[in-house]
């Protein structure tokens, strides 16, 4: 099957799953949380896991982009735009998941109007808004020159869309003005990146703080929790960039030096993440606080031991480190390392959220009242998985359309990185 045929098949499949996602959102909004396997004692489940997973992907991707646009690390320049695009759509995914998890999602705007200065959640929501605006502004500055060229080339509806996105910007008619605009772009990217660094840290460390301040859950109640969230975000962001670059760029056009450097960065982040996890878990096991110790023991040696040992440790750390340590490893191996890490980080997020709910805070409470909605047990049901698959498909579809329509992988001359012309609106 030719490339165009494969692309159409890809968009057809993703589009079909996206329709399922839209149906699931409608069903959830009309039927409520009774469609889930959540109980009165397990109030956060799969959707909250995906929420912190995607927020972490977003923060990690954005912080990697700042290495290019703030710290001028030119070796990562080829992933700068795609890192920002990934940060935006990962944020959208995370917010979609927490939106459908809310008991009254129609009230989401209350937090923006009825502010509580002492509430971490209130600050967090404002961080999300500022963070999203920063990403959009950075993408506009980076792409405005290329999009203005596409306005000239495109016809019909595409021309209208590109003209709308360009917000009236047009390419200067002489090289001197063009160079001035490029310097202005560089200046604004640095300013926005500098503002964005503490904002991105606030976004995900703030999410970790929502967990860290909950005294009733000893598993979460630690100053290390926000740090663990942030470092795990860097791990997932580096892994996502490694995966996307290895998959989207043909092998003959790949920058092997950058891939190797990105792989080394990922190993470093994984090592730091493991150090923090070891410190948190070993202290929790040693201090004999019943709630925390029992949660950790159940997580590591209980019925779902495999989520920790196979998912978090094997997929999230050992396998990627081994794959990236192969000196002459191909880009395929690096892509597998990135994918393995991302799956492992999902298991990290699961272990951060769910196990803390499965231990009764008081001996005998689990048998005092017997009802399906009062259990200290949780396994996501089919509806939750279908909804999750649908939401992820919607975001992948939007990301793919953006990647296929915007000059994300092109140079400012409207050419791809290898020097070949890109006449259409083709990203790669």
TrEMBL record:
It is a multi-pass membrane protein. Keywords: Cell membrane, Membrane, Transmembrane, Transmembrane helix. Gene3D superfamilies: Formate dehydrogenase/DMSO reductase domain. Its main location: membrane. The chain crosses the membrane at residues 9-26, 46-70, 82-100, 120-143, 191-215, 227-250, 262-286, 306-324, 336-358, 382-403. InterPro entries: Electron_transfer_protein, NrfD-like. The keyword Transmembrane helix applies. GO terms for cellular component: plasma membrane. It is found in: Cell membrane. Belongs to the NrfD family. This is Molybdopterin oxidoreductase.
């Amino acid at each position: 099957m030719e490339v165009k045929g494969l692309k159409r098949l890809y968009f057809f499949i993703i589009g079909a799953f996206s329709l399922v996602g839209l149906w699931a959102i409608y069903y959830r909004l009309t039927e409520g949380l009774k469609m889930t396997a959540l109980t009165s004692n397990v109030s956060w489940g799969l959707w909250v896991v995906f929420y912190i997973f995607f927020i972490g992907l977003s923060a990690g991707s954005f912080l990697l982009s700042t290495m290019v646009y703030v710290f001028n690390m030119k070796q990562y320049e080829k992933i700068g735009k795609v890192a920002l695009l990934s940060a935006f759509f990962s944020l959208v995914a995370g917010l979609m998941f927490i939106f459908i998890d809310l008991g009254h999602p129609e009230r989401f705007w209350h937090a923006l109007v009825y502010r509580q200065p002492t509430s971490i959640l209130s600050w967090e929501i404002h961080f999300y808004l500022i963070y999203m605006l920063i990403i959009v502004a950075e993408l506009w500055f980076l792409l405005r020159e290329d999009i203005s060229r596409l306005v000239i080339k495109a016809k019909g509806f595409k021309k209208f869309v590109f003209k709308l996105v360009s917000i009236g910007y047009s390419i200067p008619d002489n090289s001197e003005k063009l160079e001035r605009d490029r310097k202005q772009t560089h200046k604004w990217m640095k300013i926005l990146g500098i503002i964005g660094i503490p904002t991105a840290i606030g976004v995900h460390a703030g999410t970790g703080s929502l967990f860290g301040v909950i005294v009733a859950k000893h598993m979460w109640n630690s100053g290390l929790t926000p740090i663990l969230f942030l470092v795990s975000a860097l791990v997932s962001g580096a892994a996502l960039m490694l995966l996307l670059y290895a998959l989207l760029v043909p092998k003959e056009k790949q920058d092997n030096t950058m891939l190797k450097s990105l792989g080394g960065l990922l190993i470093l982040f994984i090592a730091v993440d493991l150090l923090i996890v070891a410190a948190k878990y070993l202290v929790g096991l040693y201090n004999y606080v019943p709630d925390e110790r029992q949660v950790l023991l159940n997580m590591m040696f209980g019925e779902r031991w495999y989520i920790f040992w196979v998912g978090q440790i094997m997929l999230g750390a050992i396998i990627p480190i081994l794959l990236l340590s192969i000196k002459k490893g191909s880009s395929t191996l690096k892509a597998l390392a990135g994918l393995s890490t991302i799956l492992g980080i999902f298991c990290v997020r699961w272990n951060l959220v769910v196990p803390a709910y499965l231990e009764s805070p008081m001996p005998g409470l689990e048998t005092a009242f017997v009802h399906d909605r009062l259990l200290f047990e949780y396994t996501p049901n089919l509806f939750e998985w279908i909804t999750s698959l649908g939401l992820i498909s919607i975001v992948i579809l939007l990301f793919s359309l953006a990647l296929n329509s915007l000059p994300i992988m092109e140079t400012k001359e409207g050419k791809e990185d290898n020097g070949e012309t890109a006449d259409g609106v083709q990203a790669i």
